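hiii so my PI (J.) wants the whole complex modelled not just the main chain, which honestly fair. so below is everything: two entries, each one labled with what it is. i double checked the lines twice but i was tired so who knows lol
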Amino acid sequence: GAGVSQSPSNKVTEKGKDVELRCDPISGHTALYWYRQSLGQGLEFLIYFQGNSAPDKSGLPSDRFSAERTGGSVSTLTIQRTQQEDSAVYLCASSPPWGGDYGYTFGSGTRLTVV
Amino acid sequence: GQQLNQSPQSMFIQEGEDVSMNCTSSSIFNTWLWYKQEPGEGPVLLIALYKAGELTSNGRLTAQFGITRKDSFLNISASIPSDVGIYFCAGKNFGNEKLTFGTGTRLTIIP
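here's the output for the full assembly
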């Protein structure tokens, strides 16, 4: 597609449930990033995929968080046993290889609310 | 994780005024980026800076890469209603594709 697509746009879940967030990057972009934005805060890095290389998972806050990228395209961020502190907007971005110097293209995000 | 400090946190200005905001870091960056985020949307890149001392303009926006590599500022001239949003700085280093984001400056324009 023309831009980075994320779904769902909003998700309300009960504490303790698992959630899956989906990201469709721009076609041809080999790099894909997940960031988290808590209310009134800046963006916090979670994970980075570059082509077939092992992902950089250094930003994942706990082992309840995981992400995969199938076929070098679509990515899914999974949060297990959600907690209220997981409530945030989860932003996905993509770029050409080593495109960080030129900025990424962000999606509109998934707003996750854990009740 | 590490965050950059932006100031001010929020600004309330009248339409037509100029705006200035800055971003400081305890460590150096090789690239500075400025983004704008509107409600319900992801951040959109405004300006990218690649060299210490560099001054770059994009329409009414001007940004500078600090000579120490530890700071950057963004100016908006003659503000208009559509400038409303949250402005984020971001820093990047060579060989590391992660961006470190600032805490944001929320701009509100009073008609």
